[in-house]
Amino acid sequence: MYVPPSRGGGGGAAAGGGGGEQPRVYQVWRGSNEFFLQGRFIFGPDVRSLFLTIFLILAPVLVFCIFVARHLINDFPDHWGVSVMVVVVVFTIYDLTLLLLTSGRDPGIVPRNTHPPEPESIDGGSDMGNGQTPQQLRLPRTKDVFVNGVIVKVKYCDTCMLYRPPRCSHCSICNNCVERFDHHCPWVGQCIGRRNYRFFYMFVFSTTLLCLYVFGFCWVYIVKIRDAENSTIWKAMLKTPASIVLIIYCFICVWFVGGLSVFHFYLMSTNQTTYENFRYRYDRRANPYNRGMVNNFLEIFCTAIPASKNNFRARVPVDQGLQQTRTPARGFMSPNMGKPVGDLELGRKPVSWDEPRSAADIRDLEVGLGGLLDEKEGRIAHASPDLSLPGELVEGRAGMHSRRSSWGHRSGTSESMDSIAVQMGTEANWGSISSGHGTTSSTH
């Protein structure tokens, strides 16, 4: 179970043991998720799109019930017309329930490690010969594991500090590693993974059936109007503009949700995920997870959903929080150290590990030089309190301070080094002026 350290100034209260209750896991969660009802529901950071999806389902159903189904109640014998209204209401509730089960539950988040794993094997002879200590060893970028007799490479995740299990990937939107990662769906505002893929497909398929149901009964209502008035189909359509709008709306939506249903039906029959289908192309090599069509469907719909590995409502233990704050870094190098950072799987722009480190070093150098120059100026002012500088030097000194203060806004390192040279040259000029003034005073 993932238990992150507490944020802010809660460490003192935790250490004392009497300064209030420990925060819950969802309150200090490191991912980008949104929690509701005190951690009982977990959503993605784009949870607002969920309200748009609910509106796109409820709005046409309400229009159908008011302008179409209400008029069909008395058009069928033995009160069968009532079933038209009942079925669409029940089916809509069922569809929204599947939507909530998809978007409001843990999709299969892998708990993060509090420190990088230790290397499994260390070649002591060669490493010691090169002057390296075990703390300077670099973790391998990938590891080989066997899945049904096939070698599968698993990658190291720098964010979660773990080797991802097979079929696991890190979602850049939710900032979590998700088991059997399929994709991040913006329409439900959640990752689709091992624990909610079943409900996701059932939601998409039921939405397709709902569109077909509304589409079909709108045409039934138009035909009823044509037969009742002995007119053409075009005149009957003009009598119910709401039916025309619903027919066009459902026709457009069924291409989207219907095509998605067919695509995921193919993925389930071959035991693939959307991510694997676009990245690995199992049609060009063997799929180690394919167990046959029947077994693949049984795996999706008939196996027990594993329990979540994260207890979001649990209290953060005091001892583990203190251990995380006191444990020093083990010093093992990341497999990406010195290489471009940014998982190509996530579509992020690679950034060199050395760039942020160089920027930090420049900022530290700026602070150190600024303190050194301030100390020098203080000594000069203390030794020669009546020293007056010419106007040109005063202006140059002010310009130097302005350059120093705007250091952090410059992007190139060459300009920073030029400003350092100007500062050191100006400091030397001040020293010569001070010595010259002292000589003149002694002569007089």
From TrEMBL:
Residues 1-20, 109-136 are annotated as: Disordered. It is found in: Membrane. InterPro entries: Palmitoyltrfase_DHHC (IPR001594), PFA4/ZDH16/20/ERF2-like (IPR039859). Coiled coil: none annotated. It catalyses: L-cysteinyl-[protein] + hexadecanoyl-CoA = S-hexadecanoyl-L-cysteinyl-[protein] + CoA. Residues 7-20 have a biased composition (Gly residues). This is S-acyltransferase. It comes from Oryza meridionalis. The lineage of its organism: Eukaryota, Viridiplantae, Streptophyta, Embryophyta, Tracheophyta.
